[in-house]
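agent: user wants the structure for PRS2 protein from Endozoicomonas elysicola. delegating to structure tool.
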Amino acid sequence: MKTIEQWFSEYGESHQNKTNKLIHWICVPSILFSIVGIVWAFSPVAAWALMAITMLFYFKLSFKLSLAMIVVFAVSAALSQALGAYVLQASIAIFIVAWIFQFIGHKVEGKKPSFFEDLQFLLIGPLWCLGFLFRKLKISY
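agent: tool returned. relaying C-alpha cells verbatim.
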C-alpha cells in the first residue's frame, strides 16, 4: 500500500494550476457531502456504513487526517439530516454542479483527473484537501 505522501504526490501531479486547485478545494468536499447525502436519502444506516468502511482506508494512511475526516463525515451526516426531505434533490444538484466544475478545472489544468488512472484517487481527494489545510496550519499528518 502506498504511503499518504506517495498518494498526495501522485494526486498533486494533476493539480498544479491555481484555478484547478481552488475548484478542487471547493468541489471535492461538496462531492463528498453530496455522496453522503444521496446515500443518506435512501438509508442513514447505509450512509454511516459507507463512511465507516471509508475510514478503514483512511486510518491505514494517516491517523490524524482520519480524525479530521470523522469530523467531515459527522458534519456531512448532520447536514444530510437537517435537509430532511430535500437531501436527495440537493445532493444530486450539488454532485452534478461540482463534477462539472471539477472537469472544468482539469480542462484548465490540461491534465486528466487522477481517478482515470486509479479509482482510489476518489478517496484521496478529500484527504488531499485536508492535507493542504494541515500543512497551512503546520500540523503533521
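agent: one observation worth passing along. The two ends are 17 Å apart (CA to CA).
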